[in-house]
Specification:
Outer membrane efflux proteins (OEP); 2 domains; four-stranded antiparallel beta sheet; two-stranded parallel sheet; elongated
């Protein structure tokens, strides 16, 4: 029965190794339409600036805001329109005139049709606003909106950078986890084979053999999980970078530079803080625009028109009829002062004043919170770096302890229980190290992002 169990165990081991081989082959040797290689997180960020859909849409929004600003400036420029018309009086209106006017018998009326059949007109209208505070403040709001859209683009880039860093370091973390799991799997396999031989000799019981087998299965479980997580993280990166599933993405970066970040380096201004500041400026401009509704407006107008009439449809020739053009022109200065509009201007101004106060308070709060967050980012990074150093030392000492116990076991000075417990401790401290490494990588990209200029 025990021999049958050993045969099944060997088949499971071979099957697992074949699965891992197939998975790695699919992950790294797939046919692809394009191949991209990244050596660092900065390389991935640079690629995302040109290919991430969120960043590209934000760039389009910035371009639209630029055109909206130019459109608001255009309102303050002179407006000119050319007009022209052609009229064909198919049936002219008939008017009855007393016969005496036309040398006809008294008491009679003669039908007469006045005017010509064809009329041609052309003209030019021009208008320019000389004084209109609302237009000026609206242009200022459009300019500030363009600025806030620029900072929104920076904020979107920051958000995308965070998502990319999460997947990038998740890949490297799982790569390290797979390496450690492979080491543990080889050690566990060696322990299990040794325990199996001891069991056959009758020097250990089945419970000890099962514990050795359990440690081996646990190590292989970690290896399978880490390998799949690597592929998932890389696929998530493809999605963030606008790549298809069949595109080849290779990450050649390592975790050797995990302690290269300087947490004391200056942080750049947070885009969200700039956005909050610009919102206060926009709300103030909108308040001034609302208040300017009480001010008068002044416009200058100019009009030129000309007419020509004829009974023959030959508008550009000197045919029978009136061939002369009769021009007319004028200019005027118009002033408008709103007196009463039902209180709409007054209440709009009150609403805008409340909005301005709210945005000012929000900016002050975000400014304070940003300073606290930045300090916590530095503290969390230093804490994570210190914890990782300790965890790495503990894992190394645990492995040394396991090696020492294993040597004593081979010399007959330690029991199998001691060896199995030492190996279990090593696996536990290995997981503790990976958790500490994961925390450090998170804090590291938080610091790195705050040191970026968006």
């Amino acid at each position: 029965m025990r021999e049958s169990k050993n045969i099944i165990t060997q088949k499971q081991t071979n099957m697992l190794r074949n699965l891992l081989t197939l998975l790695i082959t699919l992950a790294f040797c797939q046919s692809s339409h394009s191949q991209v290689v990244f050596n660092s997180l900065d390389d991935v960020w640079k690629y995302a600036d040109a290919h991430n859909i969120t960043i590209r849409i934000a760039k389009n929004e910035l371009e639209k805001a630029h055109y909206a600003k130019n459109q608001s400036y255009g309102v303050q420029l002179p407006q000119a329109n050319a007009t022209g018309s052609y009229t064909d009086n198919i049936v002219r209106q008939t008017t009855l005139l007393p016969g005496e006017m036309l040398k006809q018998p008294p008491g009679t009326y003669a039908p007469v049709q006045f005017g010509t059949q064809f009329a041609y007109t052309g003209g030019l209208n021009a208008q320019m606003s000389i004084f209109n505070l609302q237009n000026w403040y609206n242009s200022l709001v459009a300019k500030q909106t363009e600025e806030i859209t620029h900072d929104s683009l920076a904020n979107q880039r920051k958000s995308v950078y965070q998502q990319i860093a999460t997947q990038f370091y998740s890949y490297l973390l799982m790569q390290e986890a797979a390496r450690l799991a492979n080491v543990s799997s080889n050690i566990a396999d060696s322990v299990y084979q040794s325990a199996n031989n001891k069991f056959k000799e009758g020097t250990i019981n089945a419970a000890n053999l099962d514990i050795a087998k359990l440690n081996f299965e646990r190590a292989q479980l970690n290896l399978v999980s880490a390998t799949y997580q690597m592929v998932i993280a890389r696929n998530n990166l493809k999605g963030l970078l606008g790549m298809s599933l069949t595109d080849s993405l290779t990450i050649e970066a390592t975790l050797q530079d995990k302690n290269s970040i300087d947490p004391l380096a200056a942080f750049t201004e947070d885009p969200s803080l700039r956005i909050a500041l610009l919102r206060t400026k926009i709300s103030l401009s909108q308040l001034k625009a609302a208040n300017s509704a009480f001010a008068p407006t002044v416009n200058v107008l100019y009009n030129y028109s000309t007419q020509r009439y004829d009974n023959t449809y030959e508008p550009f020739s000197k045919a029978t009829g009136t061939t002369a053009w009769f021009p007319a022109q004028y200019w005027s200065l118009q002033a408008s002062l709103p007196i009463f509009t039902g209180g709409t201007r007054f209440y709009q101004s009150k609403r805008n004043k409340i909005t301005w106060k709210e945005s000012t308070e929000q900016y002050e709060y975000i400014q304070q919170q940003s300073a606290i967050n930045d300090e916590n980012i530095r503290l969390n990074y230093r804490k994570a770096a210190a914890v990782l150093t300790k965890s790495e030392n503990i894992m190394s000492l645990s492995f040394d302890n396991y090696t020492h116990v294993s040597n004593r076991y081979e010399s007959g000075l330690a029991s199998l229980d001691d060896r199995l417990n030492a190996f279990k401790d090593y696996i536990d401290y290995q997981n503790q190290y990976l958790n500490s490494l994961s925390d450090l990588l998170v804090q590291m990209y938080q610091v790195k992002i705050r040191q970026q200029s968006f």
